[in-house]
Every structure is written in structure tokens, then in C-alpha cells.
Amino acid sequence: MGTDFAYEDLRPEKLEDHTYNVIKKEKFENQDCSVIEALPATDEEKKTSSYSKRTLWVTTDTLVTLKVDFYDRSMKLLKTQTAYDMKTIKGKMMRANKTLMTHHQNNHNTLMGLLERKIDENIDDSVFTERAVVSFK
Q1: CB contact at 8 A, 40 and 54
Q2: Quick check: helix, strand or coil at residue 125?
Q3: DSSP β-ladder status, 93-103 and 53-59
């Protein structure tokens, strides 16, 4: 998409395709978090994923993911995604209005921000083209 985000980073999480282990508890951005290691669990996910593992910092109270470290197939840190400007969007559901993806191996960053968020609406596939992303339309 012409950014440091891959389609894989933006797709919905299929819980059954991964195994999850809490490896420690720590603070991140002054919030109590569970640090969770996510590994591909199915043969298909192991084959198709760009990542050997992910490490997620998830708040213990609201269950919001604040940070994700992505590791390449050689187990080297590839990218870090960090969530900013958290907003309540529906009930107790919170999401970031800004997300920074830092690509460590390319020494590059992409900041993704939202101008507007609509919940439970269909989105035309043309929104997810490189042209649409680059033109900000």
C-alpha cells in the first residue's frame, strides 16, 4: 500500500490461527499491560504470515493493544506498531485515532491517522488501493 503497514497488519485477528502466552506484566505509557507473545499456530498461518512472532502490549483494564512488535522469519525485530490518541468508540470499545508503524530494518515510519470513524458500515474495496491511500481520499 506504499506504507510500512502490510495488509496482514490490518486484517482482523483470527484467534484460532495463533497461540497466545502472557510472558510478563509491565507498564507501557503509564498503563498496566499484559505482554503477550503471539505465534502462528496453524500450518497455513505459518506458511503465509510474514512474521515468526508478535509481542503485544495489551492494557489489563480495557484490553486495548497499545504496542505490537513484529518479528521477521529470522526472529529479528522488523516493525513496531504504537497506538496513540485512544478514543472510546462504542460502549467500552476503544480504538486509536493515530497509529505509528516504525520499520526498524528500513529505518522508516508511517503515521496513520483517522479523520472520521464509522462503525458497522460497509466499505468499498476501492478505499484499500495504493492510489486511495496515497491521495488521502
Answers
A1: no
A2: helix
A3: unpaired
Q: Give percent helix, percent strand, percent coil of the chain, each to the nearest 5.
A: 15, 50, 35
Domains along the sequence of the chain with CATH: 7-135 (2.50.20.10)
Please check whether residue 29 is in contact with residue 19, taking contact to mean a CB–CB distance below 8 angstroms. Answer: no
DSSP secondary structure code for residue 52 in this structure: S
Residue type, 28: F
Beta strand 31-40 with 108-113 is unpaired
- Asked if the model's pLDDT at residue 137 lies above 70, the reply is no
Inter-residue contact 113 to 97 (CB < 8 Å): yes
pTM for this prediction: 0.82
Q: Give the count of beta carbons closer than 10 Å to the beta carbon of residue 78.
A: 22
Contacts of 73 (CB under 8 A, 6+ apart): 50, 51, 52
